[in-house]
Design a protein that fits this description.
mainly alpha
């Protein structure tokens, strides 16, 4: 019984631990897939790819991070903060997705002037909202390297707008950079901590 409770505690800590690079990989892969979906016109399925990443992330945590958590001195932060941000991010993504459908399918649910304004400035409004969501994730997790990703996103969006680049292209490139960075963190994590094996 105590071993079962201990395992649950280890899994809980593993889900809140971000030194393994898996959150970087999930964010990078989500952005990359959304960018590729936009390039090929699969935007209707873009949200599905991102949602599928959540169970994949939990599975990766269980197989990669959990066996190594006994080697790591880690005390998770208050969970209420993380849960609050997760709910906020999920609701924000749902609102953004619905708003995008309304605006770009020429639905008449919004006033015509607002729809026209959102279409015209979508290249500025959407990145600004995404960067805001990124800051929420940073505040919830406390992972300092995510600040660098957020700054990189601001530079990418500003450069894309300034040089009139296609949004899906630099969005995909941003996802690829974050994904590669996360893979690098994961490799270092796996080299530093060997899986724990019961004797």
């Amino acid at each position: 019984m105590s071993q079962s409770i201990n395992l649950k505690e280890i899994e809980r800590k593993a889900n809140l631990y971000h030194g393994d690079g898996l959150i970087d990989i999930a964010i990078g892969l989500g952005i990359l897939l959304a960018g590729i979906a936009a390039i090929f016109g699969w935007t209707a399925f873009g949200g599905i790819y991102v949602v599928l990443l959540l169970p994949a992330l939990r599975s990766a945590k269980k197989s990669i991070t959990v066996p190594r958590m006994r080697h790591i001195d880690f005390t998770p932060k208050a969970q209420w903060k993380l849960k609050l941000v997760i709910v906020t991010v999920a609701l924000s993504v749902a609102v953004l997705f619905t708003l995008g459908l309304v605006v770009f399918t020429r639905n008449e649910a919004l006033p015509s002037w607002l729809t026209a304004w959102l279409r015209e400035y979508a290249g500025v409004v959407s990145p600004a909202l995404l960067v805001g969501l990124g800051w929420l994730i940073v505040l919830a997790t406390g992972v300092k390297r995510l600040y660098a990703y957020t700054a990189l996103a601001v530079i990418a969006f500003a450069s894309g707008y300034w040089f009139n680049l296609e949004f899906p292209l630099y969005f995909t490139a941003l996802g690829a950079v974050i994904l590669l960075s996360g893979i690098g963190v994961l490799v270092q994590f796996m080299r530093k901590y060997a899986p724990y094996r019961d004797k």
